[in-house]
Design a protein that fits this description.
With about 375 residues, the chain is mostly helical. The protein has one domain: Up-down Bundle (Growth Hormone, Chain: A). About 80% of the residues lie in helices and about 0% in strands. It has 17 helices and no strands. Helix 1 packs across helix 6, helix 3 runs parallel beside helix 5 and helix 14 packs antiparallel against helix 15. The protein starts with 6 loop residues before the first helix and ends with a helix. About 60% of the residues are buried.
Length: about 375
Amino acid sequence: MISADRPATRLATRLAFLVAGFGVACWAPLIPYAKARLAVDDGVLGVLLLCLGIGSVVAMLMTGVLSARFGCKPIIIGGAIGMAVFLPLLAVVSTPLTLGVALFLFGGSLGSLDVAMNIHAVEVEKASDRPLMSGFHGLFSVGGFIGSVFAIFLLSVQLGPLPTMLVASALMLLAVVIIAPRLLTTTAAEGGPLFALPRGFVLLLAVLTAIVFLAEGAVLDWGALYLTGAGLVGAEHGGMGYMVFSIAMTVMRLLGDAVVGRVGDRATLFWGSVIGIVGFAVVLLAPFVAVAMAGFLLVGVGLANVVPILFRKAGSQKVMPSGLAVTAVTTAGYAGVLLGPAGIGFVAKLTSLPASLWMLTALMLLVTLTAGRVAGSKH
Protein backbone atom coordinates (compact mmCIF):
# COMPACT_ATOMS: atom_id res chain seq x y z
CA MET A 1 0.00 0.00 0.00
CA ILE A 2 1.28 3.49 -0.88
CA SER A 3 1.92 5.65 2.18
CA ALA A 4 -0.57 8.47 2.68
CA ASP A 5 2.18 10.83 3.85
CA ARG A 6 4.08 11.16 0.57
CA PRO A 7 4.45 14.00 -1.97
CA ALA A 8 3.10 11.64 -4.64
CA THR A 9 -0.19 11.03 -2.82
CA ARG A 10 -0.60 14.74 -2.11
CA LEU A 11 0.05 15.48 -5.79
CA ALA A 12 -2.53 12.91 -6.87
CA THR A 13 -5.11 14.39 -4.49
CA ARG A 14 -4.47 17.92 -5.71
CA LEU A 15 -4.73 16.82 -9.34
CA ALA A 16 -8.03 15.05 -8.62
CA PHE A 17 -9.47 18.29 -7.22
CA LEU A 18 -8.04 20.20 -10.18
CA VAL A 19 -9.64 17.84 -12.73
CA ALA A 20 -13.03 18.14 -11.02
CA GLY A 21 -12.86 21.94 -11.01
CA PHE A 22 -11.62 22.06 -14.60
CA GLY A 23 -14.37 19.79 -15.91
CA VAL A 24 -17.25 21.56 -14.21
CA ALA A 25 -15.89 24.99 -15.26
CA CYS A 26 -15.80 23.86 -18.88
CA TRP A 27 -19.53 23.13 -18.62
CA ALA A 28 -20.38 26.65 -17.39
CA PRO A 29 -19.76 28.53 -20.70
CA LEU A 30 -21.74 25.85 -22.55
CA ILE A 31 -24.97 26.68 -20.72
CA PRO A 32 -26.01 29.69 -22.87
CA TYR A 33 -25.17 27.68 -26.01
CA ALA A 34 -27.25 24.74 -24.77
CA LYS A 35 -30.19 26.99 -23.92
CA ALA A 36 -30.09 28.59 -27.37
CA ARG A 37 -29.59 25.27 -29.19
CA LEU A 38 -32.57 23.68 -27.46
CA ALA A 39 -34.68 26.90 -27.47
CA VAL A 40 -35.88 26.36 -23.88
CA ASP A 41 -36.83 28.80 -21.12
CA ASP A 42 -35.37 29.09 -17.62
CA GLY A 43 -37.90 26.62 -16.20
CA VAL A 44 -36.99 23.83 -18.62
CA LEU A 45 -33.30 24.59 -18.16
CA GLY A 46 -33.82 24.25 -14.40
CA VAL A 47 -35.26 20.76 -14.93
CA LEU A 48 -32.27 19.81 -17.07
CA LEU A 49 -29.86 21.08 -14.41
CA LEU A 50 -31.83 18.98 -11.93
CA CYS A 51 -30.85 15.91 -14.00
CA LEU A 52 -27.21 16.78 -13.37
CA GLY A 53 -27.89 17.11 -9.66
CA ILE A 54 -29.86 13.87 -9.43
CA GLY A 55 -27.10 11.97 -11.16
CA SER A 56 -24.56 13.45 -8.78
CA VAL A 57 -26.50 12.72 -5.60
CA VAL A 58 -27.27 9.14 -6.66
CA ALA A 59 -23.58 8.59 -7.37
CA MET A 60 -22.59 10.19 -4.06
CA LEU A 61 -24.79 7.84 -2.07
CA MET A 62 -23.27 4.87 -3.88
CA THR A 63 -19.74 6.21 -3.54
CA GLY A 64 -19.73 5.97 0.25
CA VAL A 65 -20.47 2.24 0.09
CA LEU A 66 -18.13 1.58 -2.83
CA SER A 67 -15.26 3.54 -1.28
CA ALA A 68 -15.53 1.58 1.97
CA ARG A 69 -15.47 -1.68 0.03
CA PHE A 70 -12.98 -1.01 -2.77
CA GLY A 71 -11.13 2.13 -1.73
CA CYS A 72 -11.16 5.56 -3.35
CA LYS A 73 -8.68 4.85 -6.14
CA PRO A 74 -10.97 3.13 -8.70
CA ILE A 75 -13.77 5.62 -8.04
CA ILE A 76 -11.53 8.66 -8.50
CA ILE A 77 -10.17 7.21 -11.75
CA GLY A 78 -13.61 6.19 -13.01
CA GLY A 79 -15.21 9.51 -12.09
CA ALA A 80 -12.52 11.54 -13.85
CA ILE A 81 -12.70 9.38 -16.98
CA GLY A 82 -16.49 9.63 -16.97
CA MET A 83 -16.36 13.43 -16.85
CA ALA A 84 -13.90 13.47 -19.75
CA VAL A 85 -16.08 11.14 -21.83
CA PHE A 86 -19.43 12.83 -21.23
CA LEU A 87 -18.27 16.48 -21.42
CA PRO A 88 -18.21 16.62 -25.27
CA LEU A 89 -21.76 15.24 -25.37
CA LEU A 90 -22.97 18.35 -23.54
CA ALA A 91 -21.79 20.45 -26.49
CA VAL A 92 -23.72 18.58 -29.19
CA VAL A 93 -26.91 16.96 -27.86
CA SER A 94 -29.88 18.72 -29.42
CA THR A 95 -33.00 17.66 -27.50
CA PRO A 96 -34.02 18.15 -23.87
CA LEU A 97 -34.13 14.37 -23.36
CA THR A 98 -30.63 13.70 -24.63
CA LEU A 99 -29.20 16.67 -22.75
CA GLY A 100 -30.92 15.45 -19.58
CA VAL A 101 -29.38 11.98 -19.97
CA ALA A 102 -25.95 13.45 -20.72
CA LEU A 103 -26.17 15.74 -17.70
CA PHE A 104 -27.23 12.81 -15.50
CA LEU A 105 -24.17 10.80 -16.58
CA PHE A 106 -21.84 13.79 -16.32
CA GLY A 107 -23.25 14.62 -12.90
CA GLY A 108 -22.85 11.02 -11.76
CA SER A 109 -19.20 11.06 -12.74
CA LEU A 110 -18.68 14.40 -10.99
CA GLY A 111 -20.49 13.26 -7.84
CA SER A 112 -18.44 10.08 -7.58
CA LEU A 113 -15.20 11.98 -8.06
CA ASP A 114 -16.16 14.70 -5.56
CA VAL A 115 -16.96 12.36 -2.69
CA ALA A 116 -14.09 9.95 -3.33
CA MET A 117 -11.47 12.69 -3.60
CA ASN A 118 -12.70 14.30 -0.35
CA ILE A 119 -12.47 10.96 1.48
CA HIS A 120 -9.01 10.50 -0.03
CA ALA A 121 -8.07 14.04 1.05
CA VAL A 122 -9.11 13.31 4.65
CA GLU A 123 -6.88 10.24 4.73
CA VAL A 124 -3.92 12.14 3.28
CA GLU A 125 -4.40 15.05 5.70
CA LYS A 126 -4.64 12.70 8.69
CA ALA A 127 -1.25 11.23 7.78
CA SER A 128 0.34 14.66 7.54
CA ASP A 129 1.53 16.89 10.37
CA ARG A 130 -0.11 20.00 8.92
CA PRO A 131 -3.54 21.07 7.58
CA LEU A 132 -4.02 20.46 3.87
CA MET A 133 -7.77 20.73 3.20
CA SER A 134 -7.80 24.40 2.17
CA GLY A 135 -5.03 23.70 -0.31
CA PHE A 136 -6.86 20.71 -1.76
CA HIS A 137 -10.02 22.76 -2.21
CA GLY A 138 -7.87 25.53 -3.60
CA LEU A 139 -6.83 23.22 -6.42
CA PHE A 140 -10.52 22.77 -7.29
CA SER A 141 -10.62 26.53 -7.68
CA VAL A 142 -7.41 26.45 -9.73
CA GLY A 143 -9.10 23.96 -12.00
CA GLY A 144 -12.16 26.19 -12.21
CA PHE A 145 -10.06 29.17 -13.21
CA ILE A 146 -8.05 27.22 -15.79
CA GLY A 147 -11.21 25.65 -17.21
CA SER A 148 -12.97 29.02 -17.47
CA VAL A 149 -10.04 30.73 -19.20
CA PHE A 150 -9.51 27.72 -21.46
CA ALA A 151 -13.14 27.48 -22.58
CA ILE A 152 -13.71 31.22 -22.94
CA PHE A 153 -10.54 31.65 -25.01
CA LEU A 154 -11.25 28.80 -27.42
CA LEU A 155 -14.90 29.80 -27.80
CA SER A 156 -13.89 33.43 -28.36
CA VAL A 157 -11.60 32.44 -31.24
CA GLN A 158 -14.55 30.59 -32.77
CA LEU A 159 -13.14 27.08 -32.32
CA GLY A 160 -16.65 25.89 -31.49
CA PRO A 161 -18.18 24.10 -28.47
CA LEU A 162 -17.46 20.52 -29.58
CA PRO A 163 -13.76 20.93 -30.54
CA THR A 164 -13.22 22.94 -27.36
CA MET A 165 -14.67 20.17 -25.21
CA LEU A 166 -12.72 17.48 -27.05
CA VAL A 167 -9.47 19.26 -26.23
CA ALA A 168 -10.63 19.62 -22.61
CA SER A 169 -11.38 15.88 -22.42
CA ALA A 170 -7.93 15.01 -23.74
CA LEU A 171 -6.30 17.16 -21.05
CA MET A 172 -8.42 15.52 -18.33
CA LEU A 173 -7.48 12.02 -19.51
CA LEU A 174 -3.82 13.00 -19.46
CA ALA A 175 -4.21 14.07 -15.85
CA VAL A 176 -5.79 10.69 -15.01
CA VAL A 177 -2.67 8.96 -16.34
CA ILE A 178 -0.60 10.99 -13.87
CA ILE A 179 -3.02 10.54 -10.97
CA ALA A 180 -3.70 6.80 -11.15
CA PRO A 181 -0.38 5.30 -9.96
CA ARG A 182 -0.06 7.82 -7.11
CA LEU A 183 -3.41 7.27 -5.41
CA LEU A 184 -3.82 5.29 -2.19
CA THR A 185 -4.86 1.72 -2.92
CA THR A 186 -7.07 1.51 0.16
CA THR A 187 -8.36 3.87 2.82
CA ALA A 188 -8.75 3.39 6.54
CA ALA A 189 -12.07 1.72 7.27
CA GLU A 190 -14.29 2.64 10.20
CA GLY A 191 -16.55 0.27 12.02
CA GLY A 192 -20.31 0.67 12.00
CA PRO A 193 -22.59 1.63 9.14
CA LEU A 194 -21.29 2.63 5.72
CA PHE A 195 -23.52 5.72 5.63
CA ALA A 196 -25.53 7.72 8.16
CA LEU A 197 -27.76 10.74 7.92
CA PRO A 198 -26.26 13.83 9.59
CA ARG A 199 -27.67 14.73 13.01
CA GLY A 200 -27.18 17.39 15.63
CA PHE A 201 -24.17 19.61 15.09
CA VAL A 202 -23.27 17.68 11.94
CA LEU A 203 -26.70 18.50 10.50
CA LEU A 204 -26.01 22.20 11.03
CA LEU A 205 -22.66 21.83 9.28
CA ALA A 206 -24.36 20.02 6.41
CA VAL A 207 -27.00 22.76 6.02
CA LEU A 208 -24.40 25.54 6.07
CA THR A 209 -22.21 23.67 3.58
CA ALA A 210 -25.20 23.21 1.29
CA ILE A 211 -25.94 26.96 1.40
CA VAL A 212 -22.37 27.98 0.60
CA PHE A 213 -22.10 25.41 -2.18
CA LEU A 214 -25.46 26.60 -3.51
CA ALA A 215 -23.99 30.08 -3.79
CA GLU A 216 -21.04 28.66 -5.74
CA GLY A 217 -23.44 26.71 -7.94
CA ALA A 218 -25.43 29.86 -8.64
CA VAL A 219 -22.30 31.58 -9.94
CA LEU A 220 -21.46 28.54 -12.05
CA ASP A 221 -24.85 27.75 -13.56
CA TRP A 222 -26.62 31.10 -13.57
CA GLY A 223 -23.84 33.68 -13.56
CA ALA A 224 -23.36 33.53 -17.33
CA LEU A 225 -27.11 33.69 -17.98
CA TYR A 226 -27.53 36.63 -15.61
CA LEU A 227 -24.72 38.60 -17.27
CA THR A 228 -25.98 37.91 -20.79
CA GLY A 229 -29.65 38.41 -19.83
CA ALA A 230 -28.84 41.77 -18.26
CA GLY A 231 -27.06 42.80 -21.44
CA LEU A 232 -23.72 43.24 -19.68
CA VAL A 233 -21.76 40.79 -21.90
CA GLY A 234 -22.25 38.69 -25.03
CA ALA A 235 -22.71 34.91 -24.97
CA GLU A 236 -19.07 34.23 -25.80
CA HIS A 237 -17.98 36.11 -22.66
CA GLY A 238 -20.70 34.77 -20.37
CA GLY A 239 -18.19 32.79 -18.32
CA MET A 240 -16.28 35.90 -17.23
CA GLY A 241 -18.12 36.12 -13.92
CA TYR A 242 -17.22 32.56 -12.96
CA MET A 243 -13.65 33.17 -14.11
CA VAL A 244 -13.25 36.22 -11.82
CA PHE A 245 -14.96 34.33 -8.99
CA SER A 246 -12.55 31.41 -9.54
CA ILE A 247 -9.49 33.68 -9.44
CA ALA A 248 -10.55 35.14 -6.09
CA MET A 249 -11.49 31.72 -4.73
CA THR A 250 -8.17 30.27 -5.87
CA VAL A 251 -5.99 32.95 -4.27
CA MET A 252 -7.88 32.99 -0.98
CA ARG A 253 -7.99 29.20 -0.62
CA LEU A 254 -4.31 28.82 -1.38
CA LEU A 255 -3.74 31.39 1.38
CA GLY A 256 -6.48 29.86 3.50
CA ASP A 257 -4.50 28.03 6.15
CA ALA A 258 -2.44 31.14 6.91
CA VAL A 259 -5.50 33.43 6.92
CA VAL A 260 -7.56 31.22 9.22
CA GLY A 261 -4.58 30.68 11.50
CA ARG A 262 -4.23 34.44 11.88
CA VAL A 263 -7.84 35.59 12.32
CA GLY A 264 -9.51 32.41 13.58
CA ASP A 265 -12.47 30.31 12.50
CA ARG A 266 -15.19 32.60 13.83
CA ALA A 267 -13.93 35.74 12.08
CA THR A 268 -13.39 33.83 8.86
CA LEU A 269 -16.93 32.46 8.91
CA PHE A 270 -18.57 35.73 9.97
CA TRP A 271 -16.73 38.22 7.77
CA GLY A 272 -16.38 35.77 4.90
CA SER A 273 -20.14 35.31 4.68
CA VAL A 274 -20.72 39.06 5.03
CA ILE A 275 -18.31 39.80 2.18
CA GLY A 276 -20.01 37.12 0.07
CA ILE A 277 -23.44 38.66 0.71
CA VAL A 278 -22.16 42.11 -0.24
CA GLY A 279 -20.63 40.62 -3.39
CA PHE A 280 -23.93 39.16 -4.56
CA ALA A 281 -25.66 42.48 -3.89
CA VAL A 282 -23.05 44.30 -5.99
CA VAL A 283 -23.55 41.87 -8.88
CA LEU A 284 -27.33 42.25 -8.80
CA LEU A 285 -27.17 46.05 -8.63
CA ALA A 286 -24.32 46.48 -11.14
CA PRO A 287 -25.04 49.04 -13.89
CA PHE A 288 -22.18 47.81 -16.08
CA VAL A 289 -19.84 44.85 -16.38
CA ALA A 290 -16.86 46.18 -14.38
CA VAL A 291 -19.00 46.60 -11.27
CA ALA A 292 -20.47 43.12 -11.74
CA MET A 293 -16.98 41.66 -11.97
CA ALA A 294 -16.08 43.41 -8.70
CA GLY A 295 -19.11 41.71 -7.14
CA PHE A 296 -18.03 38.27 -8.35
CA LEU A 297 -14.57 39.01 -6.93
CA LEU A 298 -16.06 39.75 -3.50
CA VAL A 299 -18.14 36.57 -3.56
CA GLY A 300 -15.02 34.52 -4.24
CA VAL A 301 -12.97 36.27 -1.57
CA GLY A 302 -15.68 35.97 1.06
CA LEU A 303 -16.74 32.37 0.59
CA ALA A 304 -13.35 30.85 -0.20
CA ASN A 305 -12.41 29.54 3.25
CA VAL A 306 -15.86 28.96 4.73
CA VAL A 307 -16.21 25.42 3.37
CA PRO A 308 -12.76 24.18 4.48
CA ILE A 309 -13.60 25.27 8.03
CA LEU A 310 -16.91 23.39 7.88
CA PHE A 311 -15.10 20.26 6.65
CA ARG A 312 -12.54 20.55 9.44
CA LYS A 313 -15.31 20.89 12.03
CA ALA A 314 -17.00 17.80 10.57
CA GLY A 315 -13.78 15.85 10.98
CA SER A 316 -13.19 16.97 14.59
CA GLN A 317 -16.72 16.75 16.06
CA LYS A 318 -17.76 13.83 18.31
CA VAL A 319 -21.45 13.49 17.44
CA MET A 320 -20.71 11.00 14.64
CA PRO A 321 -17.63 9.10 13.43
CA SER A 322 -15.52 11.59 11.49
CA GLY A 323 -15.55 9.62 8.25
CA LEU A 324 -19.34 9.40 8.21
CA ALA A 325 -19.65 13.08 9.11
CA VAL A 326 -17.30 14.17 6.31
CA THR A 327 -19.18 11.99 3.82
CA ALA A 328 -22.54 13.41 4.95
CA VAL A 329 -21.32 17.01 4.81
CA THR A 330 -19.71 16.43 1.41
CA THR A 331 -22.93 14.96 0.03
CA ALA A 332 -25.04 17.80 1.45
CA GLY A 333 -22.64 20.39 0.09
CA TYR A 334 -22.52 19.04 -3.40
CA ALA A 335 -26.26 18.48 -3.36
CA GLY A 336 -26.46 22.22 -2.75
CA VAL A 337 -24.13 23.11 -5.61
CA LEU A 338 -25.80 20.72 -8.05
CA LEU A 339 -29.46 20.55 -7.00
CA GLY A 340 -29.74 24.13 -5.77
CA PRO A 341 -29.31 25.81 -9.16
CA ALA A 342 -32.28 23.81 -10.43
CA GLY A 343 -34.33 25.32 -7.61
CA ILE A 344 -33.09 28.76 -8.62
CA GLY A 345 -34.40 28.02 -12.10
CA PHE A 346 -37.85 27.13 -10.76
CA VAL A 347 -38.00 30.30 -8.65
CA ALA A 348 -36.75 32.34 -11.61
CA LYS A 349 -39.60 30.88 -13.70
CA LEU A 350 -42.15 32.02 -11.11
CA THR A 351 -40.56 35.40 -10.40
CA SER A 352 -37.30 36.38 -12.15
CA LEU A 353 -33.67 35.35 -12.10
CA PRO A 354 -32.60 38.46 -10.13
CA ALA A 355 -35.34 37.81 -7.55
CA SER A 356 -34.21 34.22 -7.05
CA LEU A 357 -30.61 35.35 -6.60
CA TRP A 358 -31.71 37.92 -4.01
CA MET A 359 -33.42 35.09 -2.08
CA LEU A 360 -30.17 33.14 -2.14
CA THR A 361 -28.32 36.19 -0.84
CA ALA A 362 -30.71 36.39 2.11
CA LEU A 363 -30.30 32.66 2.80
CA MET A 364 -26.57 33.15 3.23
CA LEU A 365 -27.27 35.18 6.37
CA LEU A 366 -27.65 31.85 8.19
CA VAL A 367 -23.88 31.34 7.88
CA THR A 368 -23.27 34.77 9.40
CA LEU A 369 -25.69 34.20 12.28
CA THR A 370 -24.27 30.79 13.25
CA ALA A 371 -20.57 31.65 12.90
CA GLY A 372 -20.04 31.86 16.65
CA ARG A 373 -21.73 28.54 17.38
CA VAL A 374 -19.86 26.69 14.66
CA ALA A 375 -16.46 28.13 15.56
CA GLY A 376 -16.88 27.76 19.31
CA SER A 377 -18.56 24.36 19.42
CA LYS A 378 -16.84 21.56 21.34
CA HIS A 379 -19.15 18.86 19.94
